[in-house]
Write a structure and sequence with these properties.
heterotrimer; A alpha+beta (555); B mainly alpha (217); C alpha/beta (366); A: 555 residues; alpha+beta; 3-stranded antiparallel beta sheet; 40% helix; 13% strand; globular; C: 366 residues; alpha/beta; Rossmann fold; Cytochrome-c3 Hydrogenase, Chain A, domain 2; 3 domains; 5-stranded parallel beta sheet; two-stranded antiparallel sheet; 17 helices; 10 strands; binds protoporphyrin IX containing FE; binds NI-FE oxidized active center; binds iron/sulfur cluster; binds FE3-S4 cluster
Chain lengths: 555, 217, 366
């Protein structure tokens, strides 16, 4: 197996991901995606109070931190037929909105950028030329020659200590890096700025929900953050003003730094608009209700699927067609491993059959991952910002159409370019921009609603388990940063009888199904060129374009 | 012929009544601590504060009283000694246990004669003393939490690690109900014995004397 | 006459400030950081210069590993404020390995970890995030084909000290919640006796993390801990005893439902299940995200996230006390207790009636 390589760990992601790939003629001809860690939280949830579930599921992941709370309470609310108050809907939108924005920026600068940006080359940059470049793409104030000089000196001082810390042993100098030194220096400066920015804007989670990561305010039936303009202990005018400032700060950075950087870097890597396509099917549950409690028809991002890259045909989603396979995953099903199970009937019986550690290779002919393989009508589906944007674009959402067309025109490419590694990365930028712009609207609506004297944040009608039917089931969906997220719950006698989560990264990172169909990561890697098998930066590019989260995927 | 016998010496009687009063007060305040059913409107009240202060004051009284009673089990008369609480330790005692049990369950009509506690009562009291100790230990362990490193925390704090703070709290709370259950049974059987043995059981815990058949002594 | 220009005991030597400046850290930021950290550590302000020098002179090598984690503690670290994550990575420590942050991947990342472990053997600080699954030979978590069990043991043994960030590495956390499907354990259970400090919380408060690192740099040792290996500076007091709502608790003012008038007025969350009375953590004083808030401040009770096995002992979260084992979800301890008392009363009442109607009892001495 001289031409088989393994990348383990894939770093700059959440969790434990391993990619094995078969190379031929400098290209990947076969690929296997595996997660190598399992916790069993679905099993841990059994028998517990459904109102507690969101605290547990939140710990699926500390990166997308809010999303599993959201899906969980929506599942319980669906099962128990609970409508949430307007304030709760808006507060949830704001929490989800800033989560997606912040998560995307961290992904772009701190997780993905180093695949395209060579930090060491920044040391050769001319600060004056960097300043000129920065000012040509944006009116962001931090763009003077002195500023970039300072950044360059700081990096130089760091490098001169001879201790590169997190930047050692990377693929610096690899032929696949194409940016001129000035673009690299600008990107490094923004890497550091984004690090500051992300911790500031996410204070919105602390204002609305006590802390981040893992805000503590979600409740079945609403939220726990009180709303009251006449109290210092609730969301009042003061806190709204502070959030307004932070949302504006969030939007400014996305509009003036992230998007311009994306558009400045992309032209150097247009070959990646033809690499990394994947399965070509897309699923988005849609999200951000703009009226009622959780009215699907009012979702800002619509629900829909696209099959075979046919953007013109956005099809409706039928939840009953979702199944999960474990043919190649380390679980067994009581009714046989070759049958897909709908999540209501889902099982999580862990059954490791892989090699005993320490090992060199996985047995990719058998089971080889802790991730299950979700399928929609037996088709693999890609989920994520690209799916969300494509569905919204196909459905004609004006904000999305405008932003996508602007990006495509600026880069001078057609819509076909979206089905690629570069397209995925660009779509994330578009998603981030649109949400960064939408948040302030929801905040204004919240302020207006409070102004009308509505202080309700929690519907407690069915808070008490004695009001519940002895059996109930429901599901909750959410468009997490990484895409379509669903939780399914069955409640019996006030306790969780079964809990199944089918997560964005489960869809994307899953292994082959019973029919041998690859998951999106695997499919996207096929055909990727690898210049140096010892330094497969190309694998990182495509895999990172999905923004993997394996703690989410396996849970 | 009836004879008046001095059964309960004063330390027994005093500790009994200190315990009774403490338990009533500790149960009322403790219940409130567990479920603050009175919610007040104004900050210048101090309802929970007082409930806790009273709880802790009576907790000390109660603990001291138990300590005194345990010491008296060494120095006191035969009815006060540990022996009275552990009838199962002797053959004679076993006979009493079976006999009393059969009487209570209506299997037999004879009640085995006892001057101090009857055999079942003695056993129940040893159980109740265990519950008392559990309350003292869990109580002071919880009490120590507000000042880690303090005296009570040093004495009992490691129990919070072994059993968990919530486990200790739940135990403390459940034992309150067990004690309430015991009290109902206890007052009833005291009354029953009073009537059936016609020996002044109820009165004895006030005055110390019981009416006992002469041949007994 | 006294020299008015003599440095006060808290002033940081000029030399140290200049060195910090040369590395791009402003004087103001550096002084702010040293002062704040000294305060978090509950050290006297006279030690600020010592803290400053320690931070300045040794960039301690740090290896940060993740096992069964959700990366929440890594994210918490990215939200650090004084200093910021950027400052820490570039100026205060030498982060030799961190899966979330590092540029290298695959075997090159693993090589960096091993090289650091060898080069700095006995000198590096190990940070562990996530629990370690010991079940079935460690198959539930591997990195580069090596099990978490083997990897963790080796790294802990070679470290100068190990800092467990978050409740998973400190106490087992969520993977160890019943029925603990993977045999997850904490680091101190996996490697007993090693120099380990636990910084539980779900996630860890970044400020407690930086303070611990700085303590180590300043004194060359780990801070004093409680019975559970938690530093006293961060876990020495109960939430309840530092809570801003304590006045309402003592008064008897409680929120009865989320969103009711008392809840909006910031009354005590005790009746909504707050676990502040059984939780040791400095949340009320240090708070999160640069002091913006903490759970109780935002209207949701504490769930006890810094206590061992809190997923099992503190649940149900919206109830003050755990369930009584063996009774249904609905039954509270008081309902059961009341039932017990009523049943006793009824039983003895019946007994009394029976006794009264039955004649001919006699004592065996009659
Ligand atoms: C017969 C004796 C006692 C009874 C019936 C009793 C009852 C109770 C009850 C029902 C609670 C509320 C528990 C909860 O739901 O959280 C409580 C709390 C407490 N008790 Fe007792 N208790 C007794 C003796 C003691 C003793 C001897 C101490 C020793 C100091 C003590 C100290 C405490 C403490 C510290 C609390 C917690 C107070 C708080 O959280 O603010 N108790 N007690
Ligand atoms: C009106 C209330 C009560 C009355 C009239 C009463 C009466 C008595 C009597 C007559 C005895 C002696 C029993 C015997 O001959 O074996 C006794 C002993 C005892 N009672 Fe009570 N009792 C009362 C309440 C309680 C309560 C509430 C408790 C505790 C929960 C309690 C605990 C005990 C104990 C532990 C003893 C054994 C005393 C010793 O040996 O130190 N009593 N009580
Ligand atoms: N995949 C995933 Fe998550 C997200 N976004 C959740 O649903 O990352 Ni941690
Ligand atoms: S302690 Fe909490 S935040 Fe940290 S890894 Fe565990 S679940 Fe995540
Ligand atoms: S809110 Fe919680 S921690 Fe604060 S006083 Fe009330 S019970 Fe204690
Ligand atoms: S839940 Fe955790 S964050 Fe603090 S307030 Fe309670 S310990
Ligand atoms: Mg699942």
């Amino acid at each position: 197996m001289a031409n088989k390589i393994a990348v383990d760990p894939i770093t700059r992601i959440e969790g434990h991901l391993r990619i094995e790939a078969q190379l031929e003629g400098g290209k990947i001809v076969n690929a296997w995606s595996s997660s190598t860690a399992f916790r069993g939280i679905e099993t841990i949830l059994k028998g517990r109070d459904p109102r507690d579930a969101h605290h547990f599921t939140q710990r699926f992941c500390g990166v997308c931190t809010t999303v599993h709370s959201m899906a969980s309470i929506r599942a319980v609310e669906d099962a128990l037929k609970i409508e949430i108050p307007t304030n709760a809907r808006l507060i949830r939108n704001l929490i989800m909105g800033i989560q997606n924005v912040q998560d995307h920026v961290i992904h772009f600068y701190h997780l993905h950028a180093l695949d395209w940006v060579d930090i060491t080359s920044a040391l050769a940059a001319d600060p004056a030329a960097t300043s000129k470049l920065a000012q040509s793409i944006s009116d962001w104030p931090k763009s003077s020659t002195d500023y970039f000089k300072g950044v360059k000196e700081r990096i130089a001082a760091f490098v001169n200590t001879g201790r590169l810390g997190p930047f050692q042993n990377a693929y610096w100098g690899h032929s696949a890096y194409k940016l001129p030194p000035e673009a690299n220096l600008m990107a490094v400066a923004h890497y550091l700025e984004a690090l500051e920015w992300q911790k500031d804007v996410i204070k919105i989670h602390a204002i609305l929900g006590s802390k981040n990561p893992h805000p503590q305010t979600f409740l079945v039936g609403g939220v726990a953050s009180p709303v009251d303009p006449n109290s210092q202990n609730g969301i009042n005018a003061d806190k709204i003003a502070l959030m307004m400032k932070l949302f504006k700060k969030a939007r400014d950075f996305v509009e003036k730094v992230y998007i311009p950087d994306l558009l400045a870097v992309a032209p150097f890597y247009t070959d990646w608009a033809g690499i990394g396509g994947g399965v070509g099917n897309f699923l988005s549950y849609g999200d951000f209700p703009e009226s009622g409690g959780n009215d699907v028809d009012s979702y800002f991002f619509p629900r829909g699927i696209i099959l075979g890259k046919d953007i013109a045909n956005v099809l409706p989603v039928d939840e009953r067609l979702i199944t999960e396979y474990v043919t190649n995953s380390w679980y067994n099903y009581s009714g046989g491993d070759n049958k897909g199970l709908h999540p209501y009937q889902g099982e999580t019986n862990h059954n490791y059959t892989g090699p005993k550690p320490p090992y060199k290779w996985l047995d990719t002919d058998g089971k080889y991952s802790w991730v299950k393989s979700p399928r929609y009508n037996d088709q693999p589906m890609e989920v994520g910002p690209l799916a969300r944007i494509l569905v919204a674009y196909g459905a004609g959402v004006p904000e999305v159409k405008g932003a996508v067309d602007f990006v495509l025109n600026t880069l001078g490419v057609g819509a076909g370019a979206l089905f690629s590694t570069l397209g995925r990365t660009a779509a994330r930028g578009v998603d981030c921009l649109i949400l960064a712009q939408r948040n302030e609207k929801w905040l204004n609506e919240l302020a207006a609603n409070i102004g009308r004297g509505d202080y309700e944040v929690h519907n407690k009608e069915r808070w008490d388990p004695s009001t519940w039917p002895s059996e109930a089931q429901g599901y909750g969906t959410h468009e997490a940063p990484r895409g379509a997220l669903g939780h399914w719950i069955r409640i019996e006698n006030g306790k969780i009888a079964n809990y199944q989560a089918v997560v964005p990264s489960t869809w994307n990172a899953g292994p082959r199904d019973a029919a041998g169909q690859m998951g999106p990561y695997e499919a996207a890697l096929i055909g990727t060129p690898i210049a140096d098998p010892n330094k497969p930066v190309e694998i990182l590019r495509t895999i990172h374009s999905f923004d993997p989260c394996l703690a989410c995927a396996v849970h | 012929m009836l004879k008046v016998t001095y059964v309960w010496e004063w330390p027994v009687r005093i500790t009994h009544w200190v315990n009774v009063i403490s338990i009533v007060v500790l149960s009322v305040t403790g219940y409130y601590i567990g479920d603050p059913f009175i919610t007040v409107q104004s900050t210048d009240q101090y309802v929970m504060g007082w409930m806790r202060a009273i709880h802790f004051a009576f907790a000390y009284a109660f603990s001291l009283s138990i300590l005194v009673r345990l010491i008296w089990a060494i120095f006191g008369n035969e009815y006060a000694k540990f022996k009275a609480f552990f009838p199962w330790a002797s053959k004679e005692g076993w006979k009493h246990i079976v006999g009393t049990f059969c009487y209570y369950t209506f299997l037999k009509k004879e009640l085995p004669h006892a001057v101090g506690h009857n055999a079942l009562a003695g056993m129940a009291y040893s159980g109740v003393f265990v519950l008392f100790m559990v309350q003292v230990v869990t109580g002071f362990a919880l009490y120590g939490q507000f000042a880690p490193g303090s005296g009570w925390d040093n004495v009992f704090g490691s129990l919070l690690v072994t059993f968990g703070a919530q486990g200790m709290r739940l135990t403390h709370h459940v034992v309150m109900w067990l004690l309430i259950g015991f009290s109902i049974h206890h007052v009833y059987s005291g009354w029953l014995m009073d009537i059936k043995e016609k020996n002044g059981t109820l009165g004895s815990i006030f005055g110390g004397y019981k009416f006992v058949e002469r041949e007994d002594n | 006459m006294k020299d008015l220009k003599a440095p006060t005991p808290v002033s940081i030597p000029e030399e140290t400030l200049r060195k910090a400046e040369a590395r791009g850290v402003s004087r103001r930021d550096f002084i702010k950081f040293c002062t704040a950290t000294t305060a978090t550590l509950a050290l006297p302000m006279t030690l600020v210069p010592k803290v400053a020098q320690a931070v300045e002179d040794n960039r301690v090598p740090v290896i940060w590993v993740e096992y069964q984690s959700c990366s929440g503690d890594s994210e918490a670290f990215l939200r650090s404020n004084q200093p910021t994550a950027g400052d820490i990575i570039l100026d205060f420590i030498s982060l030799e390995y961190s899966e979330v942050v590092m540029a290298a991947a695959g075997h090159l990342a693993e090589e960096a970890k091993h090289a650091a472990m060898k080069k700095y053997a006995g000198k590096y600080v190990l940070v562990v995030e996530g629990s370690i699954p010991t079940g079935d030979g460690g198959v539930y978590c591997t990195t580069g084909g090596i099990s978490a069990v083997d990897s963790c043991k080796e790294l802990v043994k070679n470290a100068a000290a190990t800092i467990c960030v978050g409740s998973c590495s400190s106490f087992g956390g969520i993977p160890a919640a019943a029925p603990n499907p993977t045999g997850a354990v904490s680091v101190m259970d996996l490697v007993p006796g090693a120099p380990i400090i636990n910084l539980p919380g779900c996630p860890v408060n970044a400020q407690n993390f930086t303070a611990t690192v700085v303590h180590f740099l300043t004194f060359g040792s780990l801070p004093a801990t409680d019975r559970l290996g938690r530093p006293k500076f961060g876990y020495g007091k109960r939430i309840h005893d530092n809570c801003e709502r304590r006045g309402h608790f003592d008064a008897g003012q409680y929120a009865e439902a989320f969103g009711d008038a008392a809840h909006r007025d910031g009354h005590c969350l005790y009746k909504l299940g707050c676990k502040g009375p059984e939780t040791f953590h400095n949340c009320p004083t240090v708070r999160y995200n640069e002091g913006v808030s903490w759970p109780v401040m935002s209207g949701h009770g504490c769930i006890g996230c810094s206590e061992p096995q809190f997923w099992d002992t503190m649940t149900p979260f919206y109830r003050r006390l755990p369930k009584v084992p063996g009774f249904g979800v609905e039954a509270s301890v008081d309902k059961i207790g009341l039932g017990l008392a009523a049943a006793t009363a009824v039983a003895f009442g019946a007994h009394g009636v029976m006794s009264a109607v039955r004649g001919g009892d006699k004592s065996d001495k009659d």
